[in-house]
Amino acid sequence: MRKLLQGRLSKRLNQAEGNNVFNTGLRPLARAGGIVLGVLSAACFVGSLCVFLPSIHAASDHAASDKDATDKNATYNTNPADQEARRKAYADQVGQSYNFAFGKGKLSVPGNGAVEGNTFLQPDAFPNASYCGHCHQEAYHQWQQSLHRNSFRTPFYRASVNILLNTKGIQFTRHCDSCHNPIAVLAGGLTQDSVVDRKFDQDGLTCMTCHSVQKVQSTLGNGGYVMGVPAVLVDEKGNRMPGIPPDSEILAHLDRHSKAVMQDLLHKPEFCASCHKANLPKTLNEYKEIRAFTTYDEWQNSKFSQRNPLTFYQGDFTTCQGCHMKRATNLLPEPGAKNGTFVSHRWPAGNSAVPFYYGFDEQLEKTIEFLRTGNYLNVDIFALRKGSDGKMIAPLGSEAFTLDQGEVVQAMVVIQNKNIGHSLIPEVRDLYEAWVEFMVTDPDGKEIYHSGYIKPDGSLDERAHSFTNRPVNTGGIFVDNHKVWTIHSVAYDNSVQAGRSTLVRYEFQIPKTLKGAVTVTARVQYRHLRQSYTNNVLGKDHPAYPIVQLASRTRIFNIGDNPATAPDPSDNPDWMRWNNLGIAYLDQAQYAEAIHAFGEVVKLRPDYADGYTNIGLTNISWEKFGSARAAIETALKISPDNARATFYHALVERRDGHYDAEIEDLKKVVAQFPQSRDARRELGVTYYQQEMPHEAMEQFEALQAIDPDDLAAHYNLSLLYRRFGMKDKAKEQLAFFTLKKVDPGAPTYSQDFLRQHPEISNESKLWHMHSDMEHGGIADTSVMGGGSH
Hints:
Layout: H1 2-15, E1 24-32, E2 35-43, E3 48-53, H2 59-73, H3 80-97, E4 114-115, H4 129-133, H5 137-145, H6 155-168, H7 174-180, H8 182-186, H9 207-210, E5 213-216, E6 225-227, E7 233-234, E8 240-241, H10 247-252, H11 254-261, H12 269-273, E9 278-280, H13 282-285, E10 290-293, H14 295-300, H15 320-324, E11 327-329, E12 341-343, H16 353-358, H17 361-373, E13 377-386, E14 392-393, E15 401-403, E16 408-417, E17 432-441, E18 447-451, E19 465-466, E20 469-472, E21 489-493, E22 501-509, E23 517-528, H18 531-538, E24 547-558, E25 560-562, H19 574-587, H20 591-604, H21 609-621, H22 625-638, H23 643-655, H24 659-672, H25 677-689, H26 693-706, H27 711-723, H28 727-740, H29 747-756, E26 769-771
Parallel strand pairs: 4-6, 22-26
Antiparallel strand pairs: 1-2, 2-3, 5-6, 7-8, 9-10, 11-12, 13-14, 13-16, 15-25, 16-22, 17-18, 17-19, 17-23, 20-21, 23-24
């Protein structure tokens, strides 16, 4: 792997010469120990910026660190008044020419980055990473190849942010760089004719950007942190001491060093939410606020948060850090290690493009290992439907059947988001590529049908079922270069939320002369980034970027008899297979089919309360409340304190006008799950309808503390505040509601896009067939034997 990556990086270095797609080029600088070193010359916001790519183990890093520390120790000043005066002098200088385009004192808008004191911080207030790495060698080594370190300089980021800079102005890039380069934002570097020395850009998110955050702003995202003045020591009273003390001072006061750099917040998912949640504000797009990605919210609604009673499955509590900062044995000296293990400062996730681009083979290997071994998805070739009779054979493996030559067959593939704490895919879905590859082959390996293949030019088959989206602008044109400020609508979004499933259908014909068996394989493939975006950034002449298989399942079907077979170790039990099918049907609004699937669940597991709750939920969605009540009450007999069943029971009580009973049900749910968004929202609505305004206001305020973007909270609080004479607060909430609510005209832009791209228009439908049958194949009839879906 190392040799392969070295060869590819060398090729990339040569190919990148003269590539001005994003005003960035790589040129060979040195080679030592088989590792390619390079210099990234990037057009920055002001003038030209040289960004250096140091060797991971280069002794010169520590030599530089020692020199930096020596230089700064000579002027180390612990007098708070002197430090504050120095900061004020710097802030006054920067403030004289800073473009406060969005209001005086608003340092980071359109981002949300904030700093204690709300004045600029001098860049050298942040000790650089090599200084920290002088002692924390394992953390520094891992950080060097991480996405956090490369958050600003990578060409994939620079490509889109430079378009924003060149089309709207540098002040708008504060929206992006509040997360990608906080020091630049808080130092006042993102303004026209900046005088700020931007040598820190190479480090992206340094040790001290994360370890200086003191709190977050109610999970607003877009850089919703509050940065303290960086300090590696506190005094005997706990006050932060800016500057870089000598090593001897730190070693003499390790407890005070720990208090300075370690906050309880660092262990909480809300810390990650400050950047792993993003909106597109009106100050950026001059249109309205649009949700961009909500990874934190998705985690909070997943089984791993244990804050949401409505998940289809329950699980152990796990934070963002629990997945992306797992402990492992440290190989280098690391004072932060405990019992020989250290939390990962690689933050492995889905970005395989950046380590591949830079030749970071260690990070790439860790990323691929993370993606392949997490048991995140389950792929289930669940059922077949034959053209000869149209009946569904399910679940495959447990049911015997026959298959004839020339048979037209539909295969039903269920993809379960089993163990991801957020959606598949969670962020910037327009750039990532995850899809289902479905292949049918004969005994000689010859393809009979293939969907989701990679074409010779490296692009993905247009008709593949993908887990991405297509944002469009006012012209109905796909926003191709991540120009997020132009997005007005989303033509489709096929992501699969945590704990849920999707059903993908394929249709093909068995050759009339085939003998033996056909092999059917379904796999979920993943690539970062989308091929067309990589081409936009690097040009078309670049190496093929890694494609990682996340999960797969293969079944072999004989021509003739197919007896029942033993399950594969990766298969879910049959009751869960039916349950996942029911979830997928429910999300595709196929209610009769969902009830049939959930009915099979309770046949196999009559003790499973959620099976009956799922039947009740489906009937509520179908507005069959009488049937819903019977199923939910059965669930409550099995599990009397079940919060999920109790919540849906409350909705049935509301429908029947039993408001006191509804309120009691919802209060029980809130008592068990105080951060349940749904329970607080519905309880607030009922209190409002029952003329209990104080109680309603309490619930909506609690809901807004959980999700500051909740539309129901904004709307109802605007009414309630006005009722109590709180006119300013009412006006503020109404403005938020107006700003964030969906634009009713936006879908027309999506329709324009879909009309122009019939090859992918099926992806916008709740369910659709992927078929190679020109005549349309067999009718897709319901599992109950009724009419067409």
